[in-house]
Structure formats: structure tokens, C-alpha cells
Specification:
Layout lengths: L21 E7 L14 E2 L12 E5 L5 E7 L5 E14 L6 E6 L2 E7 L17 E10 L4 E8 L8 E14 L6 E2 L7 E3 L5 E3 L2 E3 L5 E3 L2 E3 L5 E4 L4 E4 L8 E4 L5 E4 L4 E3 L2 E3 L6 E4 L2 E4 L7 E7 L12 E5 L9 E3 L5 E4 L8 E6 L6 E14 L4 E7 L2 E8 L18 E11 L6 E6 L8 E14 L5 E4 L4 E4 L4 E2 L5 E2 L6 E4 L4 E4 L4 E4 L6 E4 L18 E4 L2 E6 L4 E4 L6 E4 L15 E3 L7 E3 L4 E4 L6 E4 L15 E2 L8 E2 L4 E4 L6 E4 L14 E2 L7 E2 L4 E4 L6 E4 L16 E2 L7 E2 L4 E4 L6 E4 L31 E4 L6 E4 L4 E2 L5 E2 L3 E2 L7 E2 L4 E4 L5 E4 L3 E2 L5 E2 L3 E3 L5 E3 L4 E4 L7 E4 L30 E4 L7 E4 L4 E3 ...
Antiparallel strand pairs: 1-10, 2-3, 3-10, 4-9, 5-8, 5-10, 6-7, 6-9, 11-12, 13-14, 15-16, 17-18, 19-20, 21-22, 23-24, 25-35, 26-29, 27-28, 28-35, 29-34, 30-33, 30-35, 31-32, 31-34, 36-37, 38-39, 40-41, 42-43, 44-45, 46-47, 48-49, 50-51, 52-53, 54-55, 56-57, 58-59, 60-61, 62-63, 64-65, 66-67, ...
Length: 1463
């Protein structure tokens, strides 16, 4: 059923038929019960509380009136199904087996019992055990009429129980109008045809030239056109009719006028609920999102109980159990509603699995019914409220549903909410906080649509509209934040971060990690080594540059730069640069071997004798000759030194050829003022000496004025030794001095006694004489003269060195200055000023300046600005006026000026005769012919005049101006609509000059510009040509107003744009010009579009009307599952066997077959391999992955190694419980299990003893060190520790106690750790069993086989097991014949080929059976009991098998086994 149309008209009236749709045919008993035509007609109009706006129901019916019926129709149009509603009221107390039934045409179509208890009062307070049942019937129907019958089986009268009914609505689902009868609504579901039509495959075809219309074959009338695809007449679209302004094609309107919008080719007032108005066209809601997808759209038609899925209800309070929907008196239907949902009763929608998305839009109608009192409705998404709306019934408008109480009105609200959301499903909750019964206040919903905005692709799991945040397993975020299944070249998928991360710069491509290259950068060279793309040994790289660069010829290998060698070539030393060593040289720029230098050179270059550095004491490379002061003896490597007195010598050291320094030839002796100390240079005598010998101070004669007292040569008395030949006299400030003439020892005259300085005292100054003179009285200190003060004598003085009196003081000839009067800045005395203080003048009197007055403090204060002289500060205390002001003492501004607060009053603007400010806007009266505008306080020119600029007069503008400026023709604005600014002497385009002020208009429908007359065109209006007539262009037509473009489908048209006289290519059938068969009109392009490859015929790019080849499912015409459309072929092509479905190519899988994963490639999952028939089979458990067969491992599972065999490594075994390799016992090389007795081969250093890898008897294994160590000498055997004995040597008279071997009773341990007897020989006797004292065997106190001696009592006791031959108290030492002893002292029967031992371990009450060949014993980590079951072999024909027979089982309890810890 589709396009449900409700048209509520008066009672019982046959409504307008809408063909091919579900149409409301009748409403009966809706607003009153006066309808006729019902058999057994009864009315109960007194039940005013029945429902909102109801006046009663048909009834009451009880045991005396059991049914009522009515016939509807008689001339129904052709249809295929019928639906109707009926409200039935089950009043008072019905029995459980009583019911009401509804029949259609004599067939019962539904029944209803009264379910449970009720709390509904439909009788206005009379009784509350009433219940409503809303029947909704939907069934196939083709008859021209329908008979409805309501019946019941009540057993009592209306005083106890009764029935009434009302609100009957009937719909029929009509046939397509090409059919006379049908089995469904489609054009190909006809069962018979109109007269003249033929039936073929369910489709009726009218005779040539006729088409289906209103169930007849007709020639299409005016206003309709023949749709050859639909084979029917359809309404034609005509511009100007039905509010259409632009037709899309012959039958569809594309643009509407009058505020209407286009919906499916029709102009409507507003878009339907599930559509948005986008640019005047109704678009599905999913178009509001860039990648919108509708998840649910429904509850917009006949809502009944069958519409519950995917909705669920939460019922916690009473509700009507008959239905989960409700229908109001006005026909409004809702899910939930009156007596269904409200307090504690809610509605939920579950989406199921949806694609990955980032936001969701929810639009729904919510009905608020009856007595809501400031209560909330909640819309929740995944339990979180996104809408919380408070409502009160006092604001509800109309009582259309629920209770009949008139004051309780109802409200309908449409909600439209968009919220951010991610995930693969969502739940909507429709809840309230209502607190009264669902018959007092309730709610319902209808018209629900949910639209999601998909992620950029479906590899995203969380996203926004443009980027992904997280990806599905196996996909990765690329650099643009989009999830990709394969990362771009240069990146790899990091499974830890989920991102495409950069490969190493050396890789073109990499996998799993940045350095695991699969292809190398070309710059790495052809010999780069995968997977790390390493450079050759004689190459290096400079990251991030991937290029492999050649090392220097000096290097065998290098790093970072070509000269940073890590190993060197030839005889070069191992240094980063590999340069030649001293004594060698670079032979050329490419020779890796260094040449050897000449023996004279430490270093050389280019050739062997081209020295850079000389050896020994040689100089002047590159020749390396002997230095001055040496000579070459022709033999030695070093040059031989000359005698020190020689500068040069030859042949021998004393043969000087020139002298050193200050010596003289021929003997190189010293001058008279110098002495010879044996060095090359003669040394100078001391300054005291004239001559000296031996050393500088050993004078032989004295210099200067010194006393001739050799060898010291002192100064005379009163002279100072200044370090010169002559002695110096003392300075004048000294009485006496030391060696320095200025370094006084005592001071002269009045100088301060502070030798050696002897400074002048304070108050005097230095004159370079013995006595220091005094300073002037102005100075406390001075320098070089008495009046050159360095510090003044008093604080009233300043400015050293003069130290004059400060301002405000005068010099009275004493140290301290006198104070000037207040009115003086400077003065000569206390009565005579020389400089006046501020605001005063006229020294020496210093009276106040003009503009100031003297206050009572004797200070000069400022007059008011208007005064030049005044008696006080006020504006009315002027004695004379400032500026141009007049009339003291007030000093006002004269006329024609204004007061700006300054002494001089400025003149008014020339336009003003009086003013309050400087501008023309400040006039208070005007001059000349200007007028005063009181609204703006301005002097302005009169209208259409301009200001001459002389201030007083305005001149007249040109008549063409609407105002001018500066000159009469300089218009501010043009008058009469003229242009040509500023002269305004031109007419605008579209007008012409008629000689008057105002230009006349051209005929703008024809002309752009004209002259002399309105239709004498100079240029044509757009779309016209050939002035001055200006006819319409080709492809347009004259509509009487303008040239209008023909519809794009027309190459020519006339009188209207859709009235084609010639069609464009690809179209035919003027005047409508529809698309030719095999093409369709896409509503965008003029050219008809070829139908898609999948369509034989179509009505759109995705809407086939007949499928091509083997495609199925109109209108999409998809390839069957397992096939794909290659876009060319008529038949769908097969996908490869790996694909469940594919797209584009056979190997581009969109779903995978079987257990395959990772579309589009659909590989076998990890742990599976591909068989020859393209199935994925499970690899063997030993493989991580395999190929070709289950056991041909590519990688090994767990800890296994060595694919393809994948065996456990040495010292491990395969653990069938853990499904992996586990460690053997530490002493085992190979083993079958983790216990010590499961070793097959021992590690070196260990031997197989008692079934375990251990040392010789008397040793134990230290498992921490994994070494064999000796037991304590007292132990025969020990375990885990040296002193932890597990067996003692009875021959040494020791027994086991608490893991120690102690001496037997009657023995004690001596210092040699030997047990010696403490019993006297006379008492050494044995006790016979059950007899008394006596010797048992050879007087040796030994027990027979199967028994052991109890030392403390001397008695023999039975061994722990009868299989023991000899034993101690806890285990066997040797076994009986046919038995073997294990490591724990237990004897087991030897197992032959025809016998098996089964060891049953009892663990916490549970028996676990293990079968071991050769009696293998398993040691567990706890203390266990175990039993041995010996099976009796039986012979079966041709086969010897071991059969476990309960009758032949011998069960014998064995001893408890101790645990071997830390295994």
C-alpha cells in the first residue's frame, strides 16, 4: 500500500478516487450516529464520555441484539484490496469466552475477547470496567461493494454487559488506470483490460493512438499527453497553470510561483513531512546531508499492530492490551496514544546494524493528549536525552484525541533534531515523566524518519563529514585522515597506531615497519640490499636524502660524509679522514697508497723531497737547510751547533765566520761597558758601573756623580738613587726622601705628615712649594688657587668653583649668604631685587604683571581670561578687558563675534549675522539671501540655488539641475530623470529627448535605446536584433512583452515556450518534444540521456522500467548475486569464485564467499589455505599460516620453528593441552612431557637413571644451576638439596627420618659420621614375629623377601607393596621377578605387546584415565592417589587387541606419590 491519502468529508459520502493509490472511500459513525443503512440500528447517544468530540455509538447490543450490518459501495472502481477501521466498545463485565467479531462479505475477518481488567470509563462515571478494541482489517478484495457485519456472543442483557461501535473508515487500493481489474497496483498486474485493449504478461495495451485513462482506452484529451513508457495519458505541465512557472518536461513542473514548491512535478503549498524545501524543490531528507542515508521512514500511513516492528514497548502501568496504536476521531493515527503510552509506558525504536556515520537526523510527530500538567516529553538516543520538552494542557489548542473532557485539549508538535552519533546501531526512546493513568494523559508518535550522515567511507568507524578518526580492523588513516585498506606508496599500515606512517626515506614501498622495504629508492643504486635497502660497503648516505654516495678514495668504508672514514685504504692510518701519516704524502687525488718522504722531511707533499716540515733542527722547507748557529757536517741528521759566541761557523764549532749579537771580530770579544758570561750575547753592566767583570753589579769603575766606592758605587747624601748613572735630589715637599725623589720620608712646612705623599691640609691648596696657602671664605676646599673652590663653604652657596649664593640669597661677605625678599628671585640686598619672582616684573620693586593680582599672602594670582587687569579672580572683577572684549567689569563679546572662552572673540561665519560658533551651522541669524533653517540651525541657500562663496548671497541653478554647486551648470543631481552629470543635458538609455525637462520612455520591450520616438530603436533590447524594428532572435518568441527563450527541448517555438514547433535532436513529438525510446529526460540536460547499461528502458539514471539481459529487481535492475555489471555487456558477468558479490570487475569483491576476509581481494583468513576448488580450509594446528596443503606451513604457530615442518625446538615438547611447545624438564634434551621421567635424551653431563636424567647415586641435580652436586655423605640418595635425603644406606645402620639419614636405634654417630652400636653384645638379639626373643636367620636379624626390619622393635614388617622383594617402610628397594623399579621406589609389572597398564589419577574426586605403553608414570603438582589397572589380553580373530573388561580388572591401590616441585 502506498501514498495513503486521507480526505475527511461528511459522513457516508463516497470520496474522490485517486487511481493506483490507497483511497479513503467511506467514513461512517464518526461524528454522529444518525447514519442509516445499518440493520438492527440502535443508538446510544447519552454516552458523552465515549471519546473526544463523540456523540455516542451504534448500540447497545446485548443478548437480545446480536449483530448489525451494512452494505457499502456498489460501484467501487477497479481495485485489488480493501482496508477498514472499526471502534468496538466492550462495556461492563464480559465473560472470558465472550467475543465481538467483524465480517466482510460474510467471512469473519477478526475477533476480540475482552482481555484482563480495565480501568476505562466510557460511560461518564457510571462504570469503569470498559474496554476499547480498534479493528483494522486489510485483505484482498475486488467486488464493487462491501458488506460489513459486527456480531457478538454475549449471554446477558445490557444491564450486565453490552457492545457498541463507531468510527468506521474504509479504504480501497485501486488498480492502475490501464487495467479493468488487477491483482496489485502496478501496470503489469492487470487481470483484465478495458474494452479494445489486449492483455500480455499482466500489462494492458490500448489500440494504436489510444492510451489508458480512467480505466478506458482513449485519445489523450487537451491538457494531457501520451506517455509511451507508461502507456497512459498523463497531465501536461503548462506554464502559468497550477502555479507552475517553469516546466521540467511535458508533465512535470520544475519551478513554482506564488510561494509554492515543486514536489514530484507538482506545485504544492509545502513539502511533505519526509522532504525538505531545497531551493523551491522538495528533496528527500537524506539530501540534507552530503552522504545522507535513510535508515527508517514510516508511521505515515495506516498505523496498526502490524507496524510495531522495529518498535518495542515498555509497559509498567495499565494500558489497553488490545492494541499498541490509536486512531483519533479526526482520523489521525499514531503509535501508542490514548490508553496505551504515558506514565511508565514508553516506545523504543531499534535501528539494527547501520553503516558507519557521524551524525543522525531524527524527525517525528509527537501527540500530547489530554491533562499534561507541566510534564516532560523526552526523545532519547542510546539512552541520552536530545530533546526535553515541557508542556501544559492549558496551552493546548484543539481537543481532537483522547478524553472527551472539553477542557483537556491536545497538541501536535513536529520535532526535527540533528545530533552527533557514531557506531553501527542506535536506539531511539520516546519517554515522558507523566504520572497519571494513560486514560488521563498520554502521548503517541507518527511520521518518523531517521537519516544518518555517512563517514567519508565505510572503512571509518568514527569520523566527521570530511575526515576519519578511527578505522575498521585492517584499514589505516592516511595523511588526509581518510581510512584506506592499502596505504599509499611511501607509507605502511602501522597496526599499533592504526595510521599510514612514513616508510624510511630509502624505501619506495615498505610493509609492517618503516625499515622493512619491499622496493628501494632508485637513488640507492641497483645493488641496494632488501629489506633495509642498505648502501654498498664503499658508499654512505646523508639522511633524509636517500641517495647512496661514493666514499672518498681514501676510505674502504665511511659514514655521514665521504671523508668520514670508518676503515682506511692502503697504508693510511685509521682516522676518520684517513689522511697520510707524517713522513708520507698524497701521490695524487685518487691513489689510495701514501708515498714515503725524504729522510730530511717530517712531512712532505707532491713528491718525496718537497718537505712541508723538516726533521731535526733543519729549517726552510721545502729544502730543509741548517739554521744559523749550526753547520752541516755532512754526516749527522741534525745540524751541529757552533760555539755560542759565533753567529755562524764552518768546519768546526769554534771557527766563527761571523759573531753573535754585540760581539766583535776577529775573536768575538765583548765591548768595555759589557761583560762576557759565556753566552752568545755580551751582557750590559749595572747603571752604577762604568765598567764591570763577571756579573753586572761587580763594578770595576763608577758612573756619573756616584762615589768611587767599588764595587757598589753609592749616591752622595741628600741624593736619591733613581736607577740612573747620576743620583737625583729630593722633591720640595719632602724634608727627606728615599730612593725615589718624590717618595718623602718626612714632610715640609705645614703639609700633612703622611709620607711618602705629604699632601696639603683641608682649607689650603697645592702650589708645589713647601708651604700650602689658605682658600677663600667661599670655599671649604680649593685647588691651585684660593678662589678655585672644589667644595663650597655653606649650603646657601652653589656652583663650585665660584660658589656664588643660590637664587633667593645674596652675598654679604661671610661664609653664609643672606635671604632675599619673597618677591625676588635674585637680589643685591634684603631690599633691592635684581630678578623678580614668577608673575612679577619692574625690578627692583617687582609688582604683579598684567593679568594678575596680589592676594593677602603677597602672591600674584591669575585674573579671569576676559581681564587684562583685575581686583580678584572673578569674571566681574575686571579693571580692563582683554582682546576685543568690551564693557568692564563684565567684558562681553561684541556683536558679530562669539565667545569661545578665549580673550579675543572670533568672528562669525560670513553667512551669519549672529552666531554661537565658527561654522555656518552655528548661525543664530543669517546674512544676505540665505535663510535660517531652525531644524538644523544652519544658514542655507534656498532650493535650486548655490552658494557664491561670498557669504551672503546664493545664485540660481540651471533648470536641468536638481540642486547645483559652485556654478549653475555643476548639478548635484539631475532633474527630470536626466543624465550626463554634472551638466544633466542627456536622456538615460531607454528614453529620448522630447524637448521638455523630462525625457520620454522608449518601448523597452523592443529597444534598449531610441531617438525621436519610443519605437524608433537605436539599439535593440536583449534577445532582439535588426534595429530600428528589433525582431526576436531564433530560439525565442515574442510573448507580447519581451522575447522569451523557448524551452531547451525546442529548437523553435511559438506563443509559449513549451509550444515547440521544432524539437532539438534526440527528441520528437512537437509541441511536447519528449525523449525518444531508449533514452530519458534527466531534468538537467537538454539532450536525452541514454538509459544505463542495466536498463532496456528507463525513466531516469537509476530507474529502469524494463531490465536488460538477466538483471532483476526493478527499478534498479541489479545483477543477480555472484555476478557484476561491466557497463557494456547485455548479460551480467560472473564474479570470481572468491567473491560472494563483486562490482566493476570480476575480482573487485564487495562481499566474500564463505569464510574469506578483506574485500575486495577476499583472501583466506589467517590459519586457512586455499584449496583447488577455491574453498578456505583450516591449516594444521602446527602452522600459523600455510599454502597448498594443511601441513605445508609458511609460518609456524606458537613457539614452533622450521617451516614447513614446524617442529618444537630443542628442550621442548608439544603440549596437547596448551596447543603449543612447552619446556622439557631442565635436565632433558628431548622429552615427551614436562616431568622428569618423560625425558627421552639427557643434556650433556646427565645420565638416564631410574627413568630420569640425573647424576650417579649419591648425587642430586641443582635445578637453579642445572648442575650435578654431591649428596651429604650420610645420604644414600638425596633430592633438590645436599642434605635432603630420600634414601639411606641400611648397611651403614642409617634410617630415613624427616629427610635426614639418622643412626638406627641402638647406634650413635661418631666424629667420623659413622653409626656405631650402643648395645652390649649380650643384648644383641632379634625378636621373632609373634614368638618372642630369638635369632631369625643366622643370628643376623635380617628379614625375608617381602618384609623389612623395624629397628626400634627388632621385628619384621610387610613391605608397602607385595611387588617389593626388599624394601623399607615407605617404598621398594628391589622388585619381585617380572616387575621393574621406577625412580620413586614403586614396582611396575613389565608391559608386553599384549598388555597395557592404565593409570587412573584421582584428582579431587574425578578420575582421569591415561594409557601409557611401558608403564609411564606421570608426576603431577599435587599429592594424588593412583591405581593400577592390569588388563587381561584377549585374542580376536586375525587381530590381537587389548580389551578392558570389568570382570578381568584387578584394581590395586598404590601408595601416594610426592610431587616434584618446580617442574
Amino acid at each position: 500500500m502506498k501514498n495513503i491519502i486521507f480526505k475527511i468529508l461528511s459522513l457516508g459520502v463516497l470520496l474522490t478516487t485517486v487511481l493506483g493509490d490507497l483511497v479513503l472511500q467511506f467514513e461512517d459513525l464518526v461524528y454522529d450516529v444518525s447514519s442509516t443503512g445499518w440493520s438492527n440500528f440502535k443508538t446510544s447517544t447519552a454516552l458523552s464520555a465515549l471519546k473526544e468530540s463523540e456523540n455516542g455509538c451504534l448500540g447497545p447490543y446485548d443478548k437480545y441484539a446480536t449483530s448489525a450490518s451494512k452494505t457499502f459501495g456498489g460501484s467501487f472502481p477497479p481495485h485489488w484490496s480493501i482496508s477498514f477501521d472499526l471502534f468496538a466498545y466492550q462495556m461492563d463485565d464480559w465473560l472470558s469466552n465472550e467475543f465481538v467479531s467483524v465480517s466482510l462479505d460474510g467471512v469473519v475477518v477478526d475477533t476480540a475477547n475482552k482481555i484482563g481488567s480495565c480501568n476505562m470509563d466510557y460511560q461518564g462515571g457510571f462504570y469503569v470496567n470498559n474496554q476499547l478494541k480498534i479493528f483494522h482489517i486489510n485483505t484482498t478484495h475486488t467486488a464493487p461493494q462491501a458488506v460489513i457485519k459486527v456480531a457478538h456472543n454475549l449471554k446477558y442483557s445490557e444491564y450486565f454487559e453490552w457492545l457498541c461501535f463507531n468510527d468506521l473508515r474504509m479504504w480501497i487500493d485501486t488498480c492502475d488506470e490501464t487495467c479493468a481489474s488487477c491483482s496489485g497496483p502496478a501496470p503489469n498486474q492487470c487481470t483484465s483490460c478495458p474494452t479494445g485493449a489486449t492483455l500480455n504478461a499482466g500489462k494492458c495495451t490500448c489500440p494504436a493512438g489510444q492510451y489508458g485513462s480512467n480505466y478506458q482506452c482513449v485519445t489523450c484529451p487537451a491538457g494531457k499527453w501520451a506517455d509511451t513508457n507508461l502507456n497512459k495519458c498523463v497531465p501536461a505541465c503548462i506554464v502559468g497553470q497550477n502555479s507552475c512557472s517553469v516546466c521540467k518536461d511535458q508533465r512535470s513542473c520544475d519551478q513554482c510561483s506564488g510561494g509554492k514548491v515543486s514536489y514530484k512535478g507538482y506545485c504544492v503549498s509545502s513539502c511533505p513531512f519526509f522532504y525538505d524545501n531545497i531551493a523551491g524543490v522538495c528533496q528527500p531528507l537524506e539530501k540534507s546531508f552530503p552522504r545522507g542515508q535513510t535508515i527508517y521512514q514510516g508511521l505515515d500511513g495506516i498505523i496498526d499492530s502490524t507496524d510495531q516492528a522495529p518498535f518495542t514497548f515498555s509497559f509498567t502501568t495499565h494500558h489497553n492490551p488490545n492494541q499498541n496504536f490509536y486512531v483519533c476521531s479526526n482520523g489521525v493515527r499514531m503509535l501508542g496514544g490514548f490508553d496505551v503510552t504515558g506514565s511508565g509506558n514508553y516506545i523504543y525504536y531499534q535501528s539494527g546494524t547501520v553503516p558507519y556515520h557521524w551524525r543522525i537526523r531524527i524527525k517525528v510527530r509527537v501527540y500530547y493528549l489530554d491533562s499534561w500538567d507541566n510534564e516532560y516529553f523526552y526523545l532519547k538516543v542510546d539512552g541520552k536525552a536530545v530533546i526535553s520538552d515541557n508542556r501544559d494542557y492549558s496551552n493546548f489548542s484543539v481537543n481532537f484525541c483522547g478524553l472527551s473532557v472539553k477542557s483537556y485539549k491536545d497538541l501536535l508538535i513536529e520535532y526535527d533534531k540533528t545530533v552527533n552519533h557514531s557506531g553501527t546501531s542506535f536506539t531511539l526512546g520516546f519517554e515522558t515523566n507523566l504520572d497519571e493513568s494513560t486514560t488521563n494523559e498520554s502521548f503517541g508518535i507518527s511520521h518518523l524518519i531517521t537519516v544518518i550522515d555517512l563517514c567519508p567511507n565505510q572503512l571509518c568507524t568514527t569520523c566527521t563529514d570530511k575526515i576519519c578518526f578511527t578505522c575498521v580492523a585492517g584499514a589505516f588513516l592516511d595523511s588526509t585522515s581518510i581510512c584506506v585498506s592499502t596505504c599509499p606508496d611511501g607509507t605502511y599500515g602501522n597496526i599499533l597506531t592504526g595510521k599510514c606512517e612514513a616508510c624510511s626515506p630509502v624505501c619506495v614501498t615498505c610493509k609492517d615497519s618503516p625499515n622493512n622495504c619491499s622496493t628501494c629508492q632508485p637513488a640507492r643504486g641497483p645493488k641496494a640490499i632488501l629489506p633495509d635497502c642498505a648502501c654498498q660497503s664503499n658508499e654512505y648516505e646523508i639522511p633524509p636524502n636517500p641517495t647512496c654516495l661514493l666514499c672518498s678514495y681514501k676510505c674502504l668504508t665511511c659514514t655521514s660524509i665521504d671523508t668520514n672514514c670508518t676503515t682506511c685504504a692502503g697504508n693510511r692510518p685509521k682516522t676518520p679522514q684517513c689522511n697520510c701519516l707524517d713522513g708520507t704524502f698524497e701521490q695524487d687525488n685518487q691513489n689510495p697508497v701514501c708515498g714515503i718522504c725524504d729522510q730530511k722531511c717530517s712531512t712532505c707533499t707532491g713528491k718525496s723531497d718537497n718537505c712541508l716540515i723538516c726533521k731535526g733542527n733543519r729549517i726552510k722547507a721545502p729544502k730543509c737547510v741548517c739554521p744559523e748557529g749550526t753547520f752541516d757536517d755532512g754526516v749527522s741528521l741534525n745540524c751541529i751547533p757552533c760555539n755560542p759566541k759565533c753567529r755562524t761557523c764552518s768546519g768546526n764549532p769554534d771557527n766563527c765566520t761571523s759573531c753573535s749579537s754585540n760581539r766583535a771580530m776577529p775573536d768575538c770579544t765583548c765591548p768595555s761597558d759589557k761583560y762576557d758570561d759565556g753566552s752568545p750575547v755580551c751582557k750590559v753592566c749595572s747603571y752604577q758601573c762604568g765598567t764591570c767583570v763577571g756579573n753586572a753589579n761587580n763594578c770595576t769603575s763608577c758612573a756619573g756623580n756616584r762615589l768611587p766606592q767599588t764595587p757598589q758605587c753609592p749616591c752622595p747624601s741628600n741624593y736619591n738613587d733613581a736607577g740612573y748613572a747620576n743620583c737625583v735630589i729630593c722633591d720640595s715637599k719632602c724634608n727627606t726622601c728615599s730612593s725615589d725623589s718624590k717618595n718623602c720620608v718626612t714632610c715640609a712646612a705645614n703639609r700633612t705628615q703622611n709620607p711618602p705623599f705629604c699632601t696639603c691640609p683641608i682649607g689650603t691648596y697645592e702650589n708645589d712649594k713647601a708651604n700650602c696657602p689658605s682658600c677663600n671664605y667661599k670655599c671649604s676646599s680649593c685647588d691651585k688657587a684660593d678662589n678655585n673652590c672644589t667644595q663650597c663653604s655653606h649650603i646657601t652657596r652653589t656652583n663650585a668653583p665660584t660658589c656664588d649664593c643660590k637664587e633667593g640669597y645674596f652675598d654679604k661677605g661671610t661664609i653664609e649668604c643672606g635671604v632675599c625678599p619673597q618677591k625676588c628671585v635674585k637680589c643685591k640686598s634684603d631690599t633691592e631685587c635684581t630678578v623678580c619672582s614668577i608673575n612679577r616684573s619692574n625690578a627692583p620693586q617687582c609688582s604683579c604683571n598684567d593679568g594678575f593680582y596680589e592676594d593677602y599672602n603677597g602672591e600674584c594670582r591669575v585674573c579671569h581670561p576676559n581681564c587684562t587687569r583685575c581686583t580678584g579672580p572673578g569674571p566681574n572683577q575686571c579693571q580692563t578687558c582683554a582682546g576685543n572684549r568690551i564693557e568692564f567689569p563684565t567684558c562681553k563679546c561684541p556683536i558679530g563675534t562669539y565667545d569661545d572662552g578665549n580673550p579675543i572673540c572670533p568672528k562669525c561665519n560670513s553667512a551669519c549675522s549672529s552666531c554661537s560658533g565658527p561654522t555656518v551651522n552655528d548661525c543664530t541669524s543669517c546674512s544676505g539671501n540665505k535663510i535660517y533653517d531652525s531644524s538644523s540651525n544652519k544658514c542655507i541657500c534656498p532650493k535650486n540655488t548655490y552658494d557664491l562663496g561670498i557669504g551672503y548671497f546664493c545664485a540660481q541653478c540651471n533648470v536641468l539641475c536638481d540642486g547645483c554647486q559652485g556654478s549653475p551648470n555643476n548639478c548635484i543631481k539631475c532633474a527630470g530623470g536626466r543624465i550626463g552629470f554634472p551638466s544633466c543635458n542627456l536622456c538615460p538609455d531607454g528614453t529620448f529627448d522630447n524637448g521638455a525637462l523630462t525625457c520620454s520612455k522608449c518601448n523597452t520591450n523592443v529597444c534598449s535605446t531610441c531617438t525621436l520616438s519610443a519605437s524608433n530603436c537605436i539599439t535593440c533590447a536583449p534577445g532582439r536584433r535588426n534595429a530600428p524594428q528589433c525582431t526576436c532572435l531564433t530560439g525565442t518568441f515574442d510573448n507580447g512583452i519581451s522575447c522569451e527563450t523557448c524551452d531547451p527541448i525546442c529548437s523553435l517555438c511559438d506563443k509559449s515556450k513549451q509550444n515547440c514547433t521544432q524539437c532539438v535532436a534526440g527528441r520528437s513529438g512537437a509541441p511536447y518534444c519528449g525523449c525518444n525510446e531508449g533514452t530519458y529526460d534527466d531534468g538537467i540536460n537538454v539532450a536525452c540521456q541514454k538509459c544505463p547499461n542495466q536498463c532496456q528502458t528507463c525513466s531516469g539514471s537509476n530507474s529502469c522500467t524494463r531490465c536488460r539481459g538477466d538483471r532483476i529487481n526493478l527499478p534498479s535492475c541489479q545483477c543477480p548475486f555472484g555476478k557484476f555489471d561491466d557497463g557494456v555487456s547485455e548479460m551480467c558477468r560472473d564474479c570470481i569464485p572468491k567473491c560472494g558479490s563483486c562490482q566493476g570487475t570480476s575480482d573487485n569483491c564487495t562481499t566474500c564467499k564463505g569464510n574469506r576476509v578483506s574485500f575486495p581481494t577476499c583472501q583466506c583468513p589467517d590459519g586457512f589455505y586455499e584449496t583447488g576448488d577455491f574453498n578456505c580450509a583450516l591449516c594444521d594446528k602446527k602452522c600459523g599460516s600455510c599454502s597448498g596443503s594443511a601441513t605445508n606451513c609458511l609460518t609456524c604457530s606458537g613457539k614452533k620453528i622450521n617451516a614447513p615442518d614446524c617442529s618444537c625446538p630443542s628442550q621442548t615438547f608439544y603440549d596437547s593441552v596448551l596447543k603449543d611447545c612447552s619446556r622439557c624438564f631442565p635436565t632433558c634434551q628431548t622429552c615427551t612431557g614436562k616431568f622428569p621421567n618423560q625425558c627421552l635424551l639427557c643434556l650433556p653431563g646427565f645420565i638416564m637413571r631410574d627413568g630420569m636424567c640425573q647424576g650417579e647415586v649419591g648425587t642430586y641435580v641443582d635445578y637453579e644451576a642445572n648442575q650435578i652436586k654431591g649428596c651429604n655423605p650420610t645420604c644414600y640418595e638425596c633430592e633438590s638439596k645436599q642434605d635432603r635425603c630420600i634414601k639411606c644406606d641400611s648397611s651403614k645402620k642409617r634410617i630415613l627420618q624427616n629427610n635426614s639419614c639418622i643412626c638406627m636405634e641402638g647406634y650413635t654417630e661418631n666424629e667420623l659420621k659413622q653409626c656405631v652400636s650402643t648395645i652390649k653384645p649380650i643384648q644383641s638379639r632379634c625378636i621373632l614375629p609373634n614368638v618372642g626373643f630369638g635369632i631369625y636367620q643366622d643370628q643376623s636379624c635380617e628379614c625375608p623377601d617381602g618384609k623389612f626390619l623395624i629397628e626400634s622393635s627388632g621385628r619384621c614388617a610387610a613391605c608397602p607393596s607385595q611387588e617389593c622383594k626388599t624394601c623399607n617402610s615407605s617404598k621398594c628397594i628391589t622388585c619381585q621377578d617380572g616387575y621393574e623399579l621406577n625412580a620413586k621406589g614403586i614396582c611396575f609389572q613389565r608391559v608386553t605387546d599384549q598388555s597395557t597398564q592404565i593409570v587412573l589419577f584421582v584428582f579431587c574426586g574425578l578420575a582421569i584415565s591415561f594409557v601409557f605403553i611401558s608403564g609411564v608414570v606421570c608426576f603431577l603438582r599435587e599429592q594424588y592417589k593412583f591405581f593400577k589397572v592390569t588388563t587381561i589380553p584377549q585374542t580376536v580373530k586375525n587381530n590381537s587387541n587389548t580389551i578392558l573388561d570389568a570382570s578381568n580388572v584387578k584394581l590395586q591401590e598404590q601408595q601416594s606419590l610426592s610431587v616434584i616441585n618446580n617442574v
